[in-house]
Write a structure and sequence with these properties.
alpha/beta; Rossmann fold
């Protein structure tokens, strides 16, 4: 019997539009799409001709360029849109892109406030399109290994989690403009930029936060926004958390520590690996510790984009989705309220 010479039809190439051509688009979104055999760089939007020229100079050839996302959505038939704008524009661009029929990769925080975030959620439900939120730390191999170890009972029940995400700030060296330091565009400072990642990762690893007490400060930068934040979290009655995030740190530990009844996990971003420490007590009251390496560090960004571009072809919802975005938005608002009032804020599950 002769074998059929009919070849399989090639897999569809997803038409990609990117709104905002700044640092996160150039570092994560565009190279991620360019590396995927399933995606085509269809359209790029940025109000700055210089930014569009910069993108071309790096070898990324979009089929079309625009300075207004509305014109792009009207002219193009896009399968997916990345929202990489300053925070102020997240909601309006996301809603318009959903209404155009595109799936979304939406940068964090999802919006300026919870009201806007819920408007995005309604637009997604009405359009039937999917949304993924760019909580990239979930795709770090160290954090994935930590989650698996927790879920398999390696450290028993967690009773404490500490997260420190800190660097020297978006400028100079990262941001393409000063929008991070402008309240009308950013909505908040290091809390909105850095702590939002911490808020997501602790809830992914431990569970819902039930209360927050936070303090914000502007310690080093001459800006009208916070450049540091610390927060104490409660996860019901069985676990506490501590978060420190900021834009003023040239050195020091960066990563995640989780303590449980039978051991501890440390995801050390500075050293580049995660460890599991367990201890067995003897009858004499002494203890012997055992340290096991769980995983080495991997690129969160490449892992995020690989997952996103491969999941496009399925009908599965993206994870993390808008539910995670709304959960962190509640914590952002709770943290700022606590910092303003000096009181602990209880978080309800009510929408």
């Amino acid at each position: 019997m002769k074998k059929s010479t009919k070849s399989k039809s090639p897999r569809k190439k997803y038409q990609v539009g990117v709104v905002g051509g700044g640092a996160i688009a150039q570092a994560l979104h565009i190279p991620g799409y360019a590396a995927s055999p399933h995606c085509e760089l269809a359209a790029i939007v940025d109000p700055s001709p210089a930014r569009l020229k910069e993108i071309r100079s790096k070898g990324w050839a979009f089929r079309s360029e625009y300075q207004d996302y509305r014109k792009m959505l009207a002219a193009e038939k896009l399968d997916v849109v990345s929202v990489c704008t300053p925070n102020k524009f997240h909601a309006e661009v996301a809603i318009a892109a959903l209404e155009s029929g595109a799936d979304l990769l939406l940068e964090k925080p999802v919006a300026m406030n919870l009201k806007e975030a819920r408007a995005i959620e309604r637009a997604a439900a009405k359009s039937g399109r999917r949304v993924m939120v760019g909580f990239s730390h979930r795709f770090n191999s160290m954090n994935i290994a930590a989650k698996k170890a927790i879920e398999s009972g390696k450290i028993g029940n967690p009773f404490m989690i500490r997260v420190r995400f800190a660097h020297t700030g978006p400028m100079a060296g990262w941001a393409k403009s000063d929008w991070f330091f402008r309240p009308t565009l950013a909505g908040g400072g290091a809390l909105m930029d850095m702590a939002v990642h911490a808020f997501d990762i602790v809830q992914w690893l431990i569970g819902p936060v039930t209360s927050i007490y936070a303090q914000t400060a502007t310690l080093r930068h001459n800006i009208p926004l916070d450049d540091n934040v610390v927060a104490v979290l409660e996860f019901g009655k069985s676990c506490l958390g501590y978060i420190e995030c900021g834009w003023t740190s040239p050195a020091g530990f960066v990563g995640i520590e989780i303590m449980g009844d039978h051991g501890a996990i440390c995801c050390d971003y500075s050293k580049g690996y995660a460890t599991l420490t367990t201890q067995k007590s003897t009858a004499a009251g002494t203890g012997k510790s055992r340290v096991t390496k769980l995983s080495v560090n991997s690129s969160s960004w490449s892992g995020e984009m690989k997952y996103f571009t491969e999941t496009l072809a399925t009908k599965k919802p993206f994870v993390p989705g808008l539910d995670a975005g709304l959960a962190t938005q509640k914590l952002i608002e709770g943290a700022y309220k606590s910092a303003k009032t000096g009181r602990k804020v209880t978080l309800s599950s009510a929408r």
